[in-house]
């Protein structure tokens, strides 16, 4: 077992006054909607992915974790003065997506320390805590004991050093009483049906858990206790289309037919609120420290529960407004300032502000139309410029280098889910590199593929979201990020129109800031750079190793039943570039920046 400690030199660096570059008080003209406080109130975060420094190039999300700490303290003071409860909830995915989390070994060493400064009432795990053994170990040995009985996981387990699967948390549930109103709360926590975890974790699907005797006994036991509210903190989308949530809800309602149930979700990176029935509510609070979700409930013991929800923009203007503070001096707390100082010191240690160039314009993933060749499309920019920076190279001694014939054409394929965030005009720093694409993948190559076969692969992979054929289970949605999947789904079902801001089951007044509407466009599953020589020459098809299973499936389709051709091509599958530290997508973007944006 490893326990991670931060050295004194790390923690006690020289004192600095924290001041983010440029303005940290946005001074927007937009009208702010008010929070409607209730008998019991919640602040919810999810899918922060290490963004605790705030968004340097986006003023509307420019608050840092220290500001958030001050905000929760000030709002808690307001609630207590009015004899109201305030609970804080986090539903996971705290790793992968920011230099603060991704540049340490293990991933999350510094960012977890920052996260733990917040005094949450319920914390649970996300899938990004489960991919890499070292990250799971850090989370289990550091974050779980820090939060004690507040860290719960109902369906996620961890393989400890004794070779025994134990709960990934301090319990499968929490039963507690609120400080002010003395409400009795029965809290559970669920991960969606995640199959990509490392060898030290195990996720039992919800549809299995709800049939197991121990779980049914747990519910039965709590029907004999005073329960005023059932709370479910899940790393699972709350959208009506996500059936796992409804399976769970159906079982909970059998045991608690009249008790209000409050769900908190995550994973798909959107702002959302759904009504599961007239006494069951579900809130999801965005991603990347762009949103603090707010939920209030009143009259939970009565016949008619009064509810409200807001999506609070992660900036100081919103934080000051909702805590009734006129100046930053009135707003700041000593604890919050210390966290902001800690962030500055960590940023300096990791050289996150080191600049690799100046981005001349903003590029967008879903905010620009890829299919119309919009010049502001980040995906098109990657196709035409960034992927061309890739070179064949072998770093590991046990692998043989390859020398592709110069006469061959080359296709470079990546899944769009590997590009996680927009690229904004302004400084392109070490942190920006991880923000756009944090993943460290190797590159594989199918050599000498006939051009007529190679040029079909992208269209096959972009054909649809899910294919089950010849007992091969291929879910092409996995090539997208969770956010892109949700946006594509809503566009295809006409739920999301051009210019629309957040619309949920309570209407369109959920955003605390009345935003200028932004467009959202569908994105493909994969994009490709095609460096063409001659249609008579074969093509080397290069791709991220993460999508190998999908590319080989598409290759088989493109071969139109010619198994001899298919297997002859697969036989030549090898590494094109195994230097994941030097040639991942984020590094390719850095190489381009150093050449063209200095």
Can you give a write-up of this model?
- The longest helix has 17 residues, at 65-81.
- Helix 2 (65-81) runs parallel beside helix 9 (316-322).
- 28% of the residues lie in helices and 21% in strands.
- The protein has two domains: 36-350, Purple Acid Phosphatase, chain A, domain 2; 355-480 and 523-596, Alpha-Beta Complex (5'-nucleotidase,  domain 2), CATH 3.90.780.
- The chain has a six-stranded mixed beta sheet with strand order 6-7-9-10-12-11, with no helix packed on it. The chain has a five-stranded mixed beta sheet with strand order 3-2-1-13-14, with helices on one face.
- By secondary structure, the protein is of the alpha/beta class.
Describe the global form.
Answer: globular
Indicate the radius of gyration in whole angstroms. 25 Å
- Percentage of β-strand residues: 15-25%
Distance between the termini: 45 Å
Q: Structurally, how many domains make up the residues?
A: 2
Q: CATH homologous superfamily name of the largest domain?
A: Metallo-dependent phosphatases
CATH architecture of the largest domain: 4-Layer Sandwich
Domain Putative 5'-nucleotidase C-terminal: 362-552
Domain Calcineurin-like phosphoesterase: 41-270
InterPro entries: 5'-Nucleotdase_C_sf, 5_nucleotidase/apyrase, Calcineurin-like_PHP, Metallo-depent_PP-like, Nucleosidase_C, Pesterase_C1039, YHR202W_N
Keywords: Signal
């Amino acid at each position: 077992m490893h326990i991670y400690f931060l050295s004194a030199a790390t923690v006690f660096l020289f004192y600095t006054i924290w001041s983010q570059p440029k303005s940290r008080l946005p001074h927007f003209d937009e009208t702010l909607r008010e929070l409607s406080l209730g008998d019991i109130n919640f602040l919810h975060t999810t899918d922060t992915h290490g963004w605790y420094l705030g968004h340097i190039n986006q003023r509307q999300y420019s608050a840092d974790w220290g500001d958030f700490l001050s905000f929760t303290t000030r709002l808690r003071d307001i609630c207590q003065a009015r004899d109201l409860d305030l609970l804080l909830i986090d539903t996971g995915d705290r790793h992968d997506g920011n230099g603060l989390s991704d540049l340490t070994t293990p991933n999350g060493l510094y960012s977890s320390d920052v996260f733990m400064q917040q005094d949450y009432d319920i914390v649970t795990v996300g899938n990004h805590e489960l991919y890499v053994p070292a990250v799971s170990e850090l989370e289990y040995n550091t974050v779980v004991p820090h939060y004690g009985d507040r860290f719960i996981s109902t369906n996620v387990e961890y393989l400890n050093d004794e070779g025994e699967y134990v709960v990934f948390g301090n319990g499968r549930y929490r039963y507690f009483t609120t400080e002010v109103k003395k409400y009795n709360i029965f809290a559970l926590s669920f991960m969606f049906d995640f199959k990509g975890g490392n060898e030290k974790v195990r996720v039992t699907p919800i549809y299995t858990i709800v049939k197991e005797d121990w779980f049914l006994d747990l519910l039965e036991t709590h029907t004999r206790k005073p329960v005023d509210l059932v709370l479910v903190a899940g790393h699972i989308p709350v959208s009506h289309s996500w059936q796992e949530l409804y399976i769970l809800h159906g079982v909970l309602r059998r045991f608690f037919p009249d008790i209000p149930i409050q769900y908190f979700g995550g994973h798909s990176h959107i702002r959302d609120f759904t009504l599961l029935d007239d006494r069951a509510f579900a809130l999801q609070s965005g991603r990347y420290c762009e949103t603090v979700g707010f939920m209030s409930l009143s009259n939970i013991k009565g016949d008619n529960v009064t509810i409200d929800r807001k999506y609070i923009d992660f900036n100081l203007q919103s934080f000051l407004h909702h805590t009734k503070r006129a100046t930053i001096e009135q707003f700041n707390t000593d604890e919050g300032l210390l966290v902001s100082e800690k962030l500055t010191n960590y940023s300096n240690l990791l050289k996150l502000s080191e600049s690799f160039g100046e981005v001349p314009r903003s590029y967008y993933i879903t905010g620009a139309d890829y299919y119309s060749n919009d010049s502001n499309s980040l995906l098109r920019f990657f196709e035409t410029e960034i992927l061309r920076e890739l070179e064949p190279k072998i770093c590991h001694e046990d692998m043989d280098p390859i020398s592709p014939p110069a006469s061959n054409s080359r296709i470079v394929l990546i899944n769009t889910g590997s590009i996680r965030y927009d690229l904004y005009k302004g400084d392109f720093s070490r942190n920006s590199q991880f923000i756009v694409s944090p993943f460290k993948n190797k590159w594989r190559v199918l050599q000498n593929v006939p051009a007529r076969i190679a040029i079909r692969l992208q269209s096959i992979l972009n054909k649809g979201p899910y294919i089950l054929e010849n007992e091969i289970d291929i879910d092409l949605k996995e090539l997208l990020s969770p956010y892109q999947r949700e946006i594509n789904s809503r566009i295809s079902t006409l739920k999301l129109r051009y210019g629309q801001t957040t619309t949920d089951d309570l209407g369109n007044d959920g955003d605390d800031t009345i935003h200028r509407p932004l467009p959202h466009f569908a994105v493909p599953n994969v994009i490709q750079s095609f460096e063409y020589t001659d249609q008579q020459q074969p093509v080397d098809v290069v791709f991220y190793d993460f999508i190998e299973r999908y590319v080989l499936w598409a290759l088989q389709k493109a071969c139109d039943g010619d198994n001899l051709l298919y297997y002859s091509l697969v036989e030549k599958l090898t590494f094109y570039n195994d230097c994941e530290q030097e040639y991942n997508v984020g590094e390719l973007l850095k190489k381009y920046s150093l050449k063209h944006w200095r």
